[in-house]
Design brief:
Structural class: mainly beta
Number of domains: 3
Shape: elongated
Radius of gyration: 31 Å
Strand content: over 45%
Distance between the termini: 104 Å
Largest sheet: 31 strands, mixed
Length: 693
């Protein structure tokens, strides 16, 4: 009897185990299995449904595809693998010849996403997406997903938690959200191998489209590959990423890839920006799309970290985050399409620029509680009262191996709070654009350029692409002839087409230059003046060329500076500028020397088509360290203009000496700095006092 009871107990236990297995893995039990499958050269195997193959051999010339309207993805041990782009220029995928063991081929409904390229004709392309997790307004759709590529966690209609996704194939997307609202908690995504386009999001860890609202909390994303972005937001979406780590690394470009600005094909940064690299950590696209990064690390080896591109009026926000370039070139953010970009309490550790602006509105400041609270309300960040309280107020710090902000299009910049720019080169580099800068140092903001140049207005040295074929084959050629005065250009005018900057409540040490278009080797600094800041060395000074500055074909560009309750020690002047990294007798810069762009040395001289207009107000003081050339000067009665200890400064207008006193002066203004000379004892020989730092 005991033996019979024991048998019944064992039988019941076995039935329970089988029932549990069936409940947990119904798909696995229903998946047909093929022991051995050989796909010969010239053969096409259409996989009719999700199928497991114990041993799969694909010969060279063999093809595996899904039925019409479907895609097929291979996973081995939960890792997507085995497929690459069939051609560099196309969108089709192919399986790599070889032998695979225990391969699961998942057949999923296709996900075709339209994209209108900015290239010739603006053609519409349908990008076929394959993704581990597909979500739309109806929630999670396993029929369009590859569940086998999700090896941990749970996926539901409103959220995914603790999922793990790994890819070693090409152009496989981790999570695609095409609508609705979705929360992603603690995902771990590792994608290795090239993507196809971060202008649409194929191959990204997370792509959000269709006006979706997505909150990502605690993500760990590490991607390596061409255009294998971390996060892509598009189509009016609102994406909030917090407490996360995102890192992307360059891949290897296809051997037949041709550098281009055709966005359908573009997979490396245009060299004319002075950069290299083939992956961006994030991209923000579409109209009115928003992406916010809070208490996170976002890094990329090259190209850029936080990008806006192919967009209209997007909003990019980073709060208490680290924005890092880990390789030799790259920007922290890019602003285009009338973008608004907020950086509060952030640390930039970048190689080339903190931001490149081509028509954007930039805000660098502190993450004080009132500012973050307002952003939370205005941008629908969804931060709780507890999350807001946990964010420690910080100032923004820019650490750049080269420049701070660079403009190759118009825009505005507001610097406030305790923001600090630590740059090896020029803080603000304006390549002939109409911009407005406002810097308020009342709460401790500082500008610390390593080369001593706070602001450089120069002609655009971007040679532009070859629009005949959209390739990056043009080169920059530096003029060697002196600039020519345009008869109808007013070097004293102030209008919206010029570069304007206001510095308030701040102590500044550094130079401001507006360099003329054209070149000349005839200008030389006076030997009896104290040395000015700036890049040193190189061949005789000349002037950069390129398209006319200021937009609209204007023959020149004025620099309009206002100092309000500020102290400035340095040069403020018109100048001739030359790319000092060029070899003697060489006046061109091509793709292989991209890093020489923007690298200029100035020689102060009279304005030609490069007026410099200076206003000193509210007790502002200017210590002129080297002879400066202006076209208009205004300073109030409580202001002061002086020279360093041991030197004196004198004023002349149109060659006529003037008493340096408060007022407004217009014309060819020269503030000449010369040493004081005193006599010692009975000797009649003059003694020159040394300059002091």
């Amino acid at each position: 009897m005991r033996r019979k009871n024991r048998f019944i107990t064992i039988l019941v236990a076995m039935v329970a185990v089988v029932a549990l297995f069936v409940a947990l893995a119904p798909a696995a039990l229903a998946t047909p299995t093929i022991l051995v499958k050989n796909v010969a050269a010239g053969e096409t195997w259409v996989v009719p449904e999700t199928t497991r193959v114990n041993t799969l051999t694909i010969a060279v010339g063999g093809t595996i595809k899904a039925p019409e309207g479907y895609s097929v993805t291979m996973t081995i041990d939960g890792i997507e693998t085995g497929q690459v782009l069939a051609t560099t220029a196309g969108l089709d995928m192919m399986f790599v010849p070889g032998t695979y063991f225990d391969a699961l081929l998942t057949v999923a409904e296709e996900n075709l996403v339209p994209y209108v390229a900015a290239g010739p004709g603006g053609q519409t392309h349908l990008f076929p997406f394959r993704q581990a997790i597909y979500v739309d307004a109806g929630g999670y759709d396993p029929a369009k997903s590859v569940p086998a590529a999700v090896t941990a966690g749970s996926v539901g209609d409103t959220s995914a938690k603790d999922v793990a996704i790994t890819s070693t194939g090409e152009n496989f997307t981790g999570i695609y959200v095409g609508g609705g609202s979705y929360t992603i908690l603690r995902p771990k995504i590792r994608l290795t191998g090239n993507g196809r386009s971060d202008f649409i999001g194929t191959g990204a860890a997370l792509t959000v489209n269709g006006g979706a609202t997505v909150v990502v909390d605690g993500a760990s994303i590490e991607n390596t590959g061409v255009a294998r972005a971390g996060v892509v937001a598009d189509g009016g979406a609102n994406v909030v990423v917090k407490n996360s780590h995102i890192q992307t690394k360059n891949g290897v470009l296809p051997s037949d890839y041709i550098p281009t600005i055709d966005t359908f094909q573009m997979r490396s940064v245009p060299w004319m920006l002075g950069l290299s690299g083939n992956v961006r950590a994030t991209n923000l696209l579409g109209t009115n799309t928003k992406a916010s990064y809070i208490n996170s690390y976002i890094g990329s080896e090259g190209w850029g970290v936080l990008s806006t591109d192919g967009c209209t009026t997007p909003t990019l926000t980073a709060i208490n985050s680290t924005i890092a370039i880990t390789g030799k070139d790259g920007y922290g953010s890019y602003g285009i399409g009338d973008a608004t970009e907020y950086f509060y309490g952030c640390t930039f550790d970048v190689a080339t620029y903190s931001t490149i602006s081509r028509g954007s509105h930039l805000y660098y400041g502190d993450s004080d509680r009132s500012t973050v609270k307002k952003l939370n309300e205005d941008l629908d960040l969804g931060l709780t009262t507890g999350e807001l309280a946990a964010l420690t107020p910080r100032n923004t710090v820019v650490n750049s191996d080269k420049f701070g902000v660079m403009w190759h299009g118009g825009g505005t910049l507001d610097v406030s709070g305790g923001t600090v720019f630590n740059t090896e080169k020029t803080t603000f580099l304006d390549k002939g654009q109409a911009i407005t800068i406002t810097v308020d140092g009342s709460e401790g903001a500082r500008l610390l350029p390593g080369n001593g140049v706070i602001m450089q207005l120069m002609d655009d040295d971007d040679p532009g692409p070859n629009f005949a074929d959209m390739t990056n084959t043009n080169i920059y050629t530096e003029p060697t002839t002196p600039p020519v005065k345009a008869a109808d250009f007013d070097v004293t005018a102030v209008n919206s087409g010029y570069a304007k900057a206001t510095f308030s409540n701040i102590v500044l040490g550094g130079d401001f230059y507006n360099s003329a278009k054209g070149g000349s080797a005839s200008l030389a600094a006076a030997a009896d003046e104290p040395p000015a800041g700036g890049d040193a060395g190189g061949p005789p000074p000349g002037g950069p060329g390129g398209p006319p500055p200021g937009g609209g074909g204007a023959p020149g560009q004025n620099l309009v500076l206002t100092f309000d309750n500020a102290t400035i020690t340095g040069v403020v002047s018109a100048s001739i500028a030359h790319h000092y990294m060029l070899d003697p007798g060489v006046f061109t810069i091509g793709a292989d020397e991209y890093y020489k762009l923007g690298e200029v040395v100035n020689t102060p001289g009279p304005a030609v088509n490069n007026g410099v207009i200076v206003t000193l107000k509210n007790n502002s003081k200017w210590i002129v360290t080297k002879t400066s050339y202006l076209t208009k000067l205004t300073f109030e009665g409580n202001g002061a203009i002086s020279a360093p200890a041991g030197y004196k400064v004198s004023l002349s207008v149109d060659g006529v000496p003037k008493l340096l006193k408060p007022g407004t002066y217009t014309g060819a203004i020269v503030l000449k700095v010369t040493p004081l000379k005193v006599f010692s004892g009975t000797s009649l020989a003059p003694r020159v006092l040394p300059a002091t730092d």
